[in-house]
Amino acid sequence: MSASAIVVLPGDEIPSAQLPKPTNKKKTLTLGPGLRHIPPETITTTIAGALVTDARKNAAWIEYNSGRYMPSVGDLIIATVNNSTGEAFNCFITPNTPQAALPHLAFEGATRKTRPVLPPNSLVYARITNSGRDSIPEVTCVDSSTGKSEGLGPLKGGMVFKISLGMARRLLSGRKGGVTVLEGLSEKMGFEVAVGRNGVLWVDGGSVKTTLAVGKAIQEVDEQALGEKGQKKVVDKVLRGV
Amino acid sequence: MGPQAVLSHLHRADGSATYAQNGYSIIGSVNGPIEVLRRDELPEEATIEVNIRPAIGVGSPKERHLETLIHNTLRSIILTRSIPRTLLQITLQVRSLPEEDASTGVSTSLTLLPHLLNTALLSLLSASIPLSTIVTSVLLAIPANTSTPVCSPDPKELLRAKPIRSIHVFAFSGDRRLLLNESDGTFSYDEWEEACELAEDVCCKEEGGVGLGEGMEVDGPQDNMESWLRDVVKRKVEQEQRWRTAD
After folding, report:
1. Percent of chain A with pLDDT over 70
2. Apex CA B40: angle with CA B38 and CA B43, to 5°?
3. Cα(B73)–Cα(B22) distance, integer angstroms
4. What ipTM is given for this predicted complex?
5. d(CA B186, CA B164)
6. Alpha-carbon Rg for chain B in angstroms
7. Which runs of consecutive H residues, i.e. helices, occur in chain A?
8. A165 plus A225 within the same structural domain
9. What DSSP state is assigned to residue A157?
10. Exposed, middle or buried, B133 (CB in 10 Å: 0-12/13-18/19+)?
């Protein structure tokens, strides 16, 4: 889907010809962000963007890259701790939205006796367990089935960078996202990154110079929407400077 | 000449747009969904707040009146029930007005209204707020010497066609429903109906078998608001997706 992307406006009806053909009769159609179903079988759009379909998963959604992050269950986010109450930390997912609750016991190895101590403004890498449409949003730092952190938890040191929501999705979608800049940089530098779907990138390179170089490189790729060749140029430029 | 639009150019707002037509230039910004004040909170709907800032000075009752009209129109297209207990803040800053605006002899709030509505919609699209449909708006003037309405007249045209018998503002949704009508002056019902039909043609896409895919390929006339809007959104999508094609 490049030039052939179907551009939609809110309120457009999606004809059934443009929806994915189910390969398996039993598999129901999944509607992603930006689409709504009006019974019996009308499917209309609610936001402006490009219509994307996936025949294998039998899913359709609208791809867009603007606006505020809206929490949805299962998303990985980087939250900022605001304060701590008796049972939970109150965290910001995006500014000026209701605070999300991160229970004190939702950390690996946390018990009533040994609770983690997080001062205000510390960062946590967490997963959303409740999107907060009808209650307050909730996040967790453990996998409920294994009780392990699986890479989630407090982020110590490093620095955060603001990236667009589309860039965060690209970074998290692996090969499909087409981001090669991190692999390129990692050949010469050592660093850690965490990507939050809420448009936050955390980088720790051990030294301020490395951290800034990596963060700025990603922001540049984001702002100029660079492809693979452009990213290689950015990598070369950064490695020359270090 | 068709209107000009730039989307998402303010980096601290969730959505923004600048719209310019016939010497009117307006910056719109949308913040939301954000936390709502307890006293404005609605249990099952989003609260919408519209702020209009005039080009010069502070807001007056004229701006309050326009805010109410825009608030009520937008409330019928925003899916407020999908984002309950939140706030949508829409700010519209008038950047410049044409010089002739005050001397045309017609209500200046009506000549500004369609531009404000179009800017508000562009900002909402930029902020990716869930909408049930789009809204497009147009101004029509009926001069005293003829009975044929002039569509989205330039202020210079209005000055030349003086005296103007009546002016009308129409706003239509994407499914051709009339959402807003404000009229000023003396006119007969037939004249109003003619103006309404003309406005519908300008605001909405041509009726008939224009499918979703076909509508964009037609290099539609620039005076059709719906195809113009589609063009603006197409440019926005291309901008966002250019990494897929970039090498």
Report:
1. 97
2. 80
3. 23
4. 0.91
5. 10
6. 18
7. 165-172, 181-186, 208-224, 228-241
8. yes
9. S
10. buried
B9 touches A: beta carbon within 8 Å: no
Give the pLDDT of residue B212. Answer: 42
For the stretch A7-42, pLDDT in tens is 999 999 999 888 887 766 777 888 999 999 998 889
- B244–A178 C-beta distance less than 8 A: yes
Domains of chain B: 4-209 (3.30.230.70)
The encoded tokens of residue B68 equal 């109410």
Mean pLDDT, chain B, integer: 89
Interface test with B, best of A66, A134, A180, A232 (most B CBs within 10 A): A66
Chain A CB within 8 Å of residue B237 CB: yes
What domain range includes position A33?
6-63
**Strands across the sheet with B150-151, in order?**
B150-151, B135-143, B164-173, B178-185
Tell me if B48 sits within 8 A of B88, measured CB to CB.
yes
pTM for the predicted model, two decimal places: 0.92
| CB-based contact A85:A103 (threshold 8 Å) | no
Question: First CA to last CA across chain B, in angstroms?
Answer: 36
Question: Is residue A59 in a domain?
Answer: yes
State whether residue A6 sits within 8 Å of chain B by CB: yes
Give me the CATH number covering residue A221: 3.30.1370.10
Question: Where does a domain end: A118, A135, A155?
Answer: A155
Closest C-alpha to A180, from A235, A239, A131: A235
